Amino acid sequence: MRISWLSADEITSARQALTARGASYEDHFHPDFVVPPAPPGYGMLDWSGVAEHVARAERVSKVVRDAGLAEARARFWDSKIAIEAATLAAAAYQGGELALDEVIDVLTCPIDGYVFYAPFLELLVALGRDQIDRTVQVYEQFVVAYARALCQIPHGARRVGAMRDGLADFYVRAGRLDDAEALFERRHDEDCGDVAVALSASRAFLAAGSISHAVRWLGVGAVRAATLGRDELATRLRNKQERVRERLS
Q1: Is domain 154-248 classified as CATH 1.25.40.10?
Q2: DSSP one-letter string for 53-105
Q3: Is 95 exposed, middle or buried (0-12, 13-18, 19+ CB in 10 A)?
Q4: CA–CA separation, 218 vs 201, rounded Å?
């Protein structure tokens, strides 16, 4: 399971720096994290953040490997550090022991811009299907926190938009169609240079059997495509709109 936005090369560089001269990952916590020197020629701006992110993940993984998941849970269960909670949850998932509360722990920690949250949102939806109100609330609160944390970082707006799109899609599956409509409308207005949100909305509503909503969003997509000069796409969407509309008759 992927849990980090860092590339394999970035993780390797951090591991090498953290374990230089025989150091362990644990050696860098006193108890606060002490940043090792960056590798020669390292080009990322946030070396301290990258190094700490990797160190925290690796020290949790080492406890899992050496002492088992139960020991790692006992030590890191209440750390409230997103990458540590994510590493624990990933280990539990690999061992077939993941519970909903562990997923929620990941999503309610302070946001870490390096954590790749998508699989945890998917697991939230899958494991929380019998607690839909709680699941919706956790998802909503996470998206708000994520937007607040990433609003000022490079490419943050794109990642926040993707999270909001995911929430809108989940609203449809949860039967909260009014909430879905409102959020899809907001995202369509934000993403004014593309048709992607309208297409996502039409697919989500169609998959949920909400034909009238799907028809409307196909029309919205056709209008946006025409406005952007994408006439071929606009025609395809209008044709599909007519085919889908036939299901209403």
Answers
A1: yes
A2: HHHHHHHHHHHHHHH-HHHHHHHHTT---HHHHHHHHHHHHHTT---HHHHHH
A3: exposed
A4: 8
pLDDT in tens, 20-79: 999 999 999 988 999 999 888 777 678 999 999 999 999 999 999 999 999 999 999 989
Helices (H), the chain: 8-18, 47-67, 69-76, 82-94, 100-108, 118-127, 132-150, 156-173, 177-190, 196-207, 211-227, 231-245
Please report, in angstroms and rounded to a whole number, the separation of the first and last CA atoms in the chain.
45
The predicted-structure confidence for 26-41, as pLDDT tens digits, reads as follows 999 988 999 999 888 7
Domain ranges in the chain are 1-130, 154-248
